From TrEMBL:
It is an enzyme of class 1 (oxidoreductase). Its EC number is 1.2.1.10. Keywords: Aromatic hydrocarbons catabolism, NAD, Oxidoreductase. Residues 2-116 form the Semialdehyde dehydrogenase NAD-binding domain. It comes from the Bacteria. The active site is at C124 (acyl-thioester intermediate). It catalyses: propanal + NAD(+) + CoA = propanoyl-CoA + NADH + H(+); acetaldehyde + NAD(+) + CoA = acetyl-CoA + NADH + H(+). NCBIfam families: ac_ald_DH_ac, PRK08300.1. This is Acetaldehyde dehydrogenase. GO terms for molecular function: acetaldehyde dehydrogenase (acetylating) activity; NAD binding. NAD(+) binds at S6, G7, N8, I9, N283. HAMAP family: Ac_ald_DH_ac.
Amino acid sequence: MAIIGSGNIGTDLMIKLLRSDGPLRLAAMAGVDPRSDGLARARRFHVPTTADGVDGLLSMPHFADIRLVFDATSAGAHRANWARLQPTGVRMLDLTPAAVGPYCVPVVNLDAHHDVNNLNMVTCGGQSAVPIVAAVAAHGIVSYAEIVSAISSKSAGPGTRAGIDEFIETTSAAVQSVGGAQRAKTVMILNPADPPVLMRNTVYCLVDGNADHAAIEASIADMVARVNAYVPGYRLTQGVQFETFTAESPLYIPETGKFTGTRVTTMLEVAGAGDYLPPYAGNLDIMTSAAQATAEHIARQTVGAAT
């Protein structure tokens, strides 16, 4: 497999793949800046590199042996990269918010996408929040979900900053289509604090009618444990909070009027593994870890189908 993009996300993913003893073998890294730290590190690790982007990757003599490509560039670049790679039949995991292919959040819907050639890994906020919304939606109707995602500004590279609009749109769409919320809103914050702070996500869900608080709390705890299995820094910062609104004391929502039911508030923290950037860059870690887990699953399924 190969990585396109030698920035923060691509470099972190490369290091994870090289340290792993799983079924994945990194065959190339492609970038567009010959002076990038990512390409320099790849060369030190004896990974074949090119600074000519997707065209350079396609011209590599061993490209025909590559079965899967990670795209860690930007939303706009991914669309161009996919246009070049789609005719080759190679599979692609898109770590940008381009959303060309269906959304994939491993613990929620990976099994539904075994044969898709272009999978979108949503966003760091989506990988963090969608599992929680899905856990709540398993025990009630989530009429509205709101995600507040705060990351250190030091962990946000040029691609992330250029794609903030796509980040918001893609995260909200995935919260609905994968998480199961009827409506969704996403807020992204680049926190300039120094020293940098860890990634924090707050997930609000409005559950219609009478909600089983114990069942929702247990469902969230189970989902956090499942995400933590491949993102060890993913955890709750405090217990799940419940607030009930009755007909006598409803919650007023400007867009829709009075709401009766339960507001479920889940507060999360994501610490990075420190493979490339320090632990404050949990937003990198949750994306690259989710992509790695997805690729390993695909590789095992492919090998299993061939035997």
